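Email to the structure team, subject: Arylesterase model.

Hi all, the expression group asked for a predicted structure before they design truncation constructs. Nothing fancy, just the tokens so they can compare against earlier work. One-line instruction: predict Arylesterase, return tokens.
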Amino acid sequence: MASGTSGMTRRYGRRAAVRRAFLGLGLFLSVSAVTWPQGVEAQPAPIRVLMLGDSITAGYGLAKPEALPAQLEAALKAAGLNVTIIEAGVSGDTTAGGKSRLEWALADQPQAVVVALGGNDGLRGLAPAESYANLADILARLQARGLPTLLAGMLAPPNLGADYGREFSETFRKLAAEHPGAVFYPFLLDGVAGDPALNQPDRIHPNPAGAQEVARRMLPAMRELLSKVQGG
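Reply from the structure team: attached below.
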């Protein structure tokens, strides 16, 4: 008899312990539901902006934090904009190269795109008509995807002659006119090109201060681009 009573006591004790554990868990969850989420707002995910470009985007001669994409992201965040710049720059790339790797670059699923190509076309003296066709294809494909786009223009080196320079720069103005939905930033290196204090010794690629200046000057255009992002 004593043994049966002892077994019942142990079983009852186990049931009571389990019941207390469940009651404690329920109390914890109910308190957590009331107190933990209050005052804590879910932070929105950053807007992803792809920067499709060449060596300037790739940060030639610079550490990654010094390069234009990182400097642009830092400037935007300092301005209160939650943005991640996806760097898709390839040194030496032309507009044809950018066109060929566009689909690969879009695998990162950006919500907006900066097209910063053309510098190497100018350095190589490629026919502006070819640059125009390549960039027009890129812009059309981005438009078909509904991706807000910023087109950054470029100028040709002066040693190629005034006629070539005019035709080359006209390429970007023509594209901007034909794609009014795109934000147009006429010259990527505005305020930096030709300034020894803002360029590396090759006088082509911005140094850290130059990249920072490019980012600063691009801020208004980037704000306009981000305003076009759905839900941005």
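The chain is about 50% helix and 10% strand. The chain has a mean pLDDT of 87. Ping us if the truncation boundaries need rechecking.
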